[in-house]
């Protein structure tokens, strides 16, 4: 009545195939679930790797900070005055290191717990995989028996084999994934052990740093005690030094007094010695005078007789004065007076003649100097006026405008006057050359040189890098001015300016083809260059 049709015998083979389909579908779902869980485990492992890398970075930072602490400690040993401050800084850094180490230990504990969870999950995955393998083996056995019993459904069995092979491949991939996860877990365990070793090394280094800091504190306290002891000794030594200095000052004062007395006594002795020498000289002079006046009379022989005579009265003194006056008026007897007179007369005549000749020569020289001064004034005035006119003409050509002139500083005295250059380039005020720029000064000086050269040309003219401070436009005008004067003189230019080199007739240069061997090279720029052309070296 409900529409069902029942008939025929039950087919065990078809029922077995349906059961196999159901088992395969369940296996596929289990494989999908296992793949999802494997992916979750992989993601978790990657996260753990990232956290481990962060922990390694923190550990490296801690190592770096520990290294900085060691450097700070080394600096503390070198400088005892700053030990306390650096010790505090090292203590703070050590505390921060310990805090970071505790953080790293906490993070490692968390990583260990997460690793245990991952391992438990991996164990569950392995158990489920083993169950799947067992179910797969049962399914393979059932499929084999079905192949033996049912030949008519070969195609369907083949299809089921293909599906079973695909399931085996997926299972193999899962096995590979699980193996890779196991290797990753082993690597993580190795890295965790390495991190634990590094943490132990960091703790050991921190302990060593603490020991070094304690040793530094001990040395610091010892150094402070030693410094205080030395300071007390220095205070005592300074007190003794001050006492010795005051005693030395008193002794130096006494020594200065003694030296002053010795100096006064020495001066008195020197004065007395000088007086004795004066008396000796006066005595000798007196004896010599008596000897000359009284024809070799030795006063020392007759001084006794003089004292033996009776005392001299006023009459004897008057007679002696009278006789002395007569002797003084007569003077000494000179037998060579006539000869000396003749010689003196000859010398007088000779010197009188020489004086007359010198006076005549001085008069001639004064006339010559006066004539030379007149000629110099005339030539200077003519030359100045000529050069000034030519300078006023050349300057506008060189500057393409403007004006310039020469001015005497003292027109009333042409022989002592100076010459000022007043120039006004285009667009500027008239002023002294000292107010101009470097290039303007150079071009003004070139204009003055060319003006003097045009006033009195010479066969040769050598210009040594005169165009160095000029720009290209002024170099062109400079070359044109030189070219306009090459018909009367030959110009030799020393330059490094290419434009000047291009405008010459013959170019000379020095080259070094071999190291240390110079060679002169000449190039004729202008084949039709006339005789007396300009050259450049």
Describe the structure.
By secondary structure, the chain is of the alpha/beta class. Helices cover 74% and strands 8% of the residues. The strands form 2 sheets. A 5-stranded mixed sheet has the order 4-5-8-6-7, with no helix packed on it. Strands 1-2-3 form a 3-stranded antiparallel sheet. A hairpin with a 6-residue loop joins β2 and β3 (431-432).
Relevant terms:
537 residues; alpha/beta; five-stranded mixed sheet; three-stranded antiparallel sheet; 74% helix; elongated; disordered C terminus
The coarse overall form would be: elongated
> Could you give the order of the helices and strands?
HHHHHHEEEHEHEHEEE
The structural class is alpha/beta
- State the major sheet: 5 strands, mixed
User: Helix count?
Assistant: 9
The low-confidence parts are: 531-537
Layout of strands and helices, then pairs:
Blueprint: H1 12-78, H2 83-149, H3 154-293, H4 299-308, H5 314-330, H6 337-399, E1 403-408, E2 419-424, E3 431-432, H7 438-455, E4 460-464, H8 472-484, E5 490-494, H9 498-502, E6 506-514, E7 517-524, E8 535-536
Parallel strand pairs: 4-5, 5-8, 6-8
Antiparallel strand pairs: 1-2, 2-3, 6-7
């Amino acid at each position: 009545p409900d529409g069902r049709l029942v008939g025929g015998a039950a087919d065990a083979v078809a029922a077995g195939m349906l059961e196999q389909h159901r088992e395969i579908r369940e296996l596929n779902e289990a494989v999908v679930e296992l793949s999802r869980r494997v992916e979750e485990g992989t993601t978790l492992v990657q996260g753990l790797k990232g956290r481990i890398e962060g922990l390694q970075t923190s550990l490296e930072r801690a190592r770096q900070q520990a290294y900085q602490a060691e450097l700070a400690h080394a600096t503390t040993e070198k400088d005892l005055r700053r030990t306390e401050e650096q010790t505090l800084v090292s203590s703070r850094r050590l505390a921060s290191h310990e805090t970071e180490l505790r953080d790293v230990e906490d993070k490692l504990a968390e990583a260990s717990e997460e690793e245990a969870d991952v391992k438990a999950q991996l164990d569950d995955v392995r158990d489920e995989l083993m169950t799947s393998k067992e179910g797969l083996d049962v399914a393979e056995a059932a499929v084999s028996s079905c192949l033996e019993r049912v030949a008519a459904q070969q195609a369907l069995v083949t299809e089921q084999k293909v599906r079973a092979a695909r399931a085996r491949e997926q299972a193999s991939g899962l096995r590979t994934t699980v193996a890779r996860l196991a290797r990753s877990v082993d690597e993580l365990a190795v890295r965790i052990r390495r991190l634990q070793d590094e943490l132990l090394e960091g703790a050991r280094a921190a302990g060593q740093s603490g020991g070094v800091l304690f040793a530094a504190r001990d040395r610091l306290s010892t150094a402070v005690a030693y410094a205080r002891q030395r300071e007390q000794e220095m205070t005592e030594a300074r007190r003794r030094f001050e006492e010795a200095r005051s005693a030395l000052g008193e002794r130096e004062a006494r020594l200065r007094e003694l030296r002053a007395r010795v100096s006064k006594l020495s001066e008195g002795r020197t004065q007395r010695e000088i007086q004795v020498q004066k008396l000796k000289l006066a005595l000798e002079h007196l004896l010599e005078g008596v000897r000359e006046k009284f024809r070799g009379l030795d006063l020392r022989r007759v001084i006794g007789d003089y004292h033996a005579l009776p005392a001299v009265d006023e009459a004897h003194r008057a007679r002696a004065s009278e006789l002395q006056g007569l002797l003084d008026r007569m003077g000494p007897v000179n037998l060579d007076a006539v000869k000396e007179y003749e010689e003196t007369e000859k010398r007088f005549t000779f010197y009188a003649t020489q004086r007359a000749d010198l006076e005549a020569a001085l008069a001639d020289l004064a006339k010559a100097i006066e004539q030379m001064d007149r000629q110099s004034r005339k030539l200077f005035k003519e030359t100045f006026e000529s050069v000034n006119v030519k300078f006023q003409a050349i300057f506008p050509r060189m500057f393409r405008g403007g004006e310039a002139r020469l001015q005497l500083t003292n027109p009333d005295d042409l022989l002592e006057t100076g010459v000022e250059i007043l120039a006004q380039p285009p667009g500027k005020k008239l002023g002294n050359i000292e107010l101009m720029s470097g290039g303007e000064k150079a071009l003004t000086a070139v204009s003055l040189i060319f003006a003097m050269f045009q006033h009195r040309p010479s066969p040769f003219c050598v210009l040594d890098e005169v165009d160095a401070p000029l720009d290209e436009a002024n170099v062109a005008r400079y070359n044109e001015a030189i070219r306009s004067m090459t018909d009367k003189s030959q110009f030799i230019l020393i330059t490094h300016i290419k434009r000047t080199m291009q405008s010459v007739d013959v170019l000379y240069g020095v080259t070094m083809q071999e190291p240390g061997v110079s060679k002169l090279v000449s190039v004729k720029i202008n084949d039709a260059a006339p005789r007396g052309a300009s050259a450049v070296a």
